[in-house]
Amino acid sequence: MSEMTPYVLVLYYSRSGATATMAQQIAAGVESVSGIQARLRTVAPVSTTCEAVDPEIPEQGAVYADLDDLRNCSALALGSPTRFGNMAAPLKYFIDSTSSLWMNGALIDKPACAFTSTSSLHGGQESTLLTMLVPLLHHGMVYAGVPYSETTLLETHTGGTPYGASHLAGTRSDRSVDEHERALCVAQGKRLARLALALHAMRQEAL
C-alpha cells in the first residue's frame, strides 16, 4: 500500500468468524472504488487475568490495530459482535484508548460506519450499531449508514439495517453470511470509500 494512497480502516473484533467475514466484504466494497484502499485490522482479546499476554501478532487473520492506523485513515468501518446490545469489550477497550486522537481532532470530518453480528434476529443489532456510533460522533466523525436506495434492505429477512450492515449468526453462531448480508456489506464499503475520497479532498483543500 502506498503511503500516499488514502485508506479506509476496517477495524473489527470477531470471535466466531462472522464479523471478520463482514469486514472482508466491506473491504472488498472499498477496494472496488478507484483511488482508495482498505486496511483490515483487529484488536486483541481482553482478560480479567492480569498475567495473560497475547502475542504482538495474531496467529491468523488481520494484525492488531494501533493508534497510527486510526490517526492516518481517511475513513473508519467499525465492526463488532453484539454484547447485550453494545460492542464487545475488546473493541470498546481499544476505542477507549483513543483520547489522544480526540484531543488533537485527528478524526474530525472523516466518514465512519459500523457493522455487527448477532445470534438472534432481535438480539440487539440496531442498538449495537447506534451505541457504536456514539464515540465516533464524539471524535467529530461523519456517520454513514446504509440508505434505502440499496434495495437489498427491503429484501433481506436476516441482517441489514439503515444504521449499518448486520448479520444473523444463529444461536450456535454457525450461520454463514448470506448473499443479502454480503451485498449490504459491499454496498456500505463502496459508500464509505466514495465519501472518504470526497471528504479527504475537502480536508486537503482546507490545509
From TrEMBL:
Signal peptide: none
Annotated GO MF terms: electron transfer activity; FMN binding; NAD(P)H dehydrogenase (quinone) activity
Cofactor (UniProt): FMN
UniProt xrefs under InterPro entries: Flavodoxin/NO_synth, Flavodoxin_CS, Flavoprotein-like_sf, Flavoprotein_WrbA-like, FMN_Rdtase-like_dom
Chain ranges of the Flavodoxin-like domain: 8-193
The protein's Enzyme Commission number: 1.6.5.2
Keyword annotations from UniProtKB, A to Z: Flavoprotein, FMN, Oxidoreductase
One Gene Ontology term, aspect cellular component: membrane
Superkingdom of origin: Bacteria
Listed Pfam families: FMN_red
Family of the protein in this entry: Belongs to the WrbA family.
Name this protein carries in UniProt: NAD(P)H:quinone oxidoreductase
Species of origin: Vreelandella maris
Taxonomy of the source species: Bacteria, Pseudomonadati, Pseudomonadota, Gammaproteobacteria, Oceanospirillales
